[in-house]
Amino acid sequence: KAGVTQTPRYLIKTRGQQVTLSCSPISGHRSVSWYQQTPGQGLQFLFEYFSETQRNKGNFPGRFSGRQFSNSRSEMNVSTLELGDSALYLCASSPSGRTGAEAFFGQGTRLTVV
Amino acid sequence: TQLLEQSPQFLSIQEGENLTVYCNSSSVFSSLQWYRQEPGEGPVLLVTVVTGGEVKKLKRLTFQFGDARKDSSLHITAAQTGDTGLYLCAGESGGSYIPTFGRGTSLIVHP
To answer: Residues 40 to 99 of B: which have CB under 8 A from any A CB?
Structure first.
């Protein structure tokens, strides 16, 4: 069974630009969560989608948004990029998301904002 | 305020040594997970504990969930270089399905 796939793996953007990251969950998994990982803050929850609906949201500004498609694939968008948005963005999938943190992670997208 | 505190933050040991890392909170968790993350990769789930006092073993790794479900420990026996990585604990509390992660313990095992 294929794992969680995130694209692209690496990305360099300029301040003020916007970026879209993609995540394909494990086949059959309906819950997709997004996390931001930085050395200073660790892993922080961004949001979770289930059946195309945002079900949970972390404490991030509105510049961070996402969506989920009918095939459970998900995208995350960050607008008006700031230097502090440089981080590893991780996507995780789980069958239902009801067990919360028990999830399967992708390799992540390393975003650098210059 | 970090809901889950992990200690130590860094650990550098020789192959063959034993070690324990801790995950503590003032909150009660309905379940708690341990992950290992290698550089450039996403975290990989090692174990989930749900019952207070529960002990789970995964080869040389022993996981324990505190009786009050507020803390957990991970003990590695006879560490190997392949155990090198960032160990993260994560859990849910207060009826929330939003998971909280600790900042992790970075383990380096030297040959």
So the answer is: 40-45, 48, 88, 90-92, 97-99
